[in-house]
């Protein structure tokens, strides 16, 4: 039984024309008939850090796969003004750095170096610059000396950070992370939060970790049943206990 | 060691050079075909799918179940891989598994790797998939029963060929190695069959789309059925000959000029192993070996070139 | 069991570790080929090969007896060669009457048997030294340079990466099976063999589906980073003069070994 939601209008979004990401009335159904997105609209501006929350099955991961052209739904979607077409795909995939939830899926190469080099190499970046980008990305996630390491020797927290490095090396315009803090022990989680805080890059992060949302993200989007049910200032939305409870969320 | 599912991983030193090179050539041919066929069928998904499926077979070989008296049934996976992924993909996956076992764990030798891949990957795919394909349109019970029989026969065929290779290399006496290999693998094959059937049954229940008839039909047709039947028939024909009358088999081999003089000079079994005009000297044997190695190497380069050209086109 | 149990590489700061992986691969393959070419009973040549192995062990700083200690992997397979002892050719050494059959070991048979074992044992040690001194990803790179088709090397690279992940899954499955199959002391546990095989088969099926789904997620992760069907890698290895020198030295060594083996 779907819950009817009133759209929240009692907040003012910052002035923004959605220069990084614009999505209007996006619909998507999987081949088996399961409808995952029912008219999602949102926009993200340069420099914003946005959290995407909601229960499992709300459509968060499906939405993220659209940002990279892996899934193609009905509706308007532009990344940095570019629509998602075959011609634009290489640019869009370089623009949008997508980090998957399970780092064992994201890190598919035997060594850390090979994995971070994968993105730049497939963008056609020349070899010398690839090496430079790999060491820059490793430095950005504070794992300078890990290039020669084998991926299966890393801890969960290290894998998560290397997974972020693999997309940072592509110098993306927006970082899209799926559950970055899931499965981390408190220390690794703390390291990750500090890392996300320091990265000077536009971010859209899907998560169940509302304490992290409160700490890091000024703006929060709540999704449920394939729809955006709230989009606004994190502190205001967090104060609305009725709204949180209605969508299976708990105030931190 | 970690996993020696069955005494089928031949180490270096147990096959002579000619047998090793002959099977390298056959393996290279089949694997190159497998590479281009799976590429056509799977496109860009080929690499992640084949790679993870190879890891799946590798990991599945660690599954064992206690049978009796402290022994346990192990799992090779060649037939299962060919049935669920199609024969070409199955070959590619088993090639990767056997190579890693040889290179990383010394489970099987390097010079004899061609023979090991052929026995455990190509032959099992032929028998496993060929027989299963024959009844792909039948009902569930028939298909599962055939899958089990195919898995057992694939194991037996692999054991038989291994025994023959060892005998032709002058490593083992046929009348001893044949019953030993076949006896052990008749038992191992039962475990293989049971696991294969249960695994296919499970996959059919949860994701029938992965085993659809259309997919099976796409991945290989009559050729595989024939190959499967021929190998099975050969195995059935050779087996009684080898067990009941090993001298008979040796005589047959003798008559068709396959074996020159039995076991008296085992390391130069095949007549072609020497270059005629050089005479049967040490030098000529070395030259023959080097020529053989060059042939295989040349074949590798040619195949590699063709593959690349095919991909660029 | 932890993933590290699979790691064969042992780090040392040694000459052999620094050597280009291509040189090591070609050298080891050539030496194993050379072992196969040596005639039965060429003890002097076998001894020479072993001496070279000891020197290599020493150069690797893994200890003089490192490969020897690990070389018993192939030993069980020696059983299949035992029958060679009773080769009908050669002079009989004894007659063992076992009631059903009479076994006659011959001198040529014994020489053959021992030669097979020695060849195998030497070759296995060479392979052991290769993987102990070379990281597996470097080995894959080397095979790529040696013209092994990239589809195969990449598949192997994926196998290497995911065998750790999937083996962990297998052990989780086995642990879950064991947790649910506790038996009372003195009672037979876990049903019939057939039932046990079925449980194991279902585990294999489950593992297959998980792996299949994982491969789709990996594929997504790959195309998200610009993959279009061609795998590109850097070519970090450059052969130095020293590498070439070692390669030539190996070939000269093989020539000497073969001469010792054949000319007597």
Fold and architecture overview:
The complex is a heterotrimer of chains A (252), B (313) and C (264). Chain A is an alpha/beta fold and 252 residues long. Chain A has a single domain, classed as P-loop containing nucleotide triphosphate hydrolases (Rossmann fold, 3-Layer(aba) Sandwich), CATH 3.40.50.300. Helix content of chain A is 35%, strand content 23%. Chain A is built from ten helices and ten strands. Chain A has a six-stranded mixed beta sheet, sandwiched between helices. In chain A, helix 4 packs across helix 5 and helix 5 crosses helix 6. The N terminus of chain A is likely disordered. Chain B has 313 residues and is an all-alpha fold. Chain B has two domains: 249 residues, Arp2/3 complex 21 kDa subunit ARPC3; 40 residues. Chain B is globular and about 50 Å long. The N and C termini of chain B lie far apart (45 Å). The N terminus of chain B is likely disordered. Chain C is mostly helical. In chain C, a hairpin with a 4-residue loop joins strand 1 and strand 2. The longest helix of chain C has 32 residues. The mean pLDDT of chain C is 84. Chains in contact: A-C, B-C. At the B-C interface, helix 1, helix 2, strand 1, helix 4 and helix 7 of B face helix 2, helix 5, helix 7 and helix 8 of C.
Q: How would you sum up this structure in a few lines?
A:
With 252 residues, chain A is α/β, with parallel strands linked by helices. Chain A has helices spanning 60-67, 89-95, 103-106, 112-122, 127-140, 156-168, 186-198, 210-216, 234-239, 241-246; strands at 21-29, 35-44, 49-53, 74-79, 82-83, 96-99, 174-178, 202-206, 219-224, 227-233.
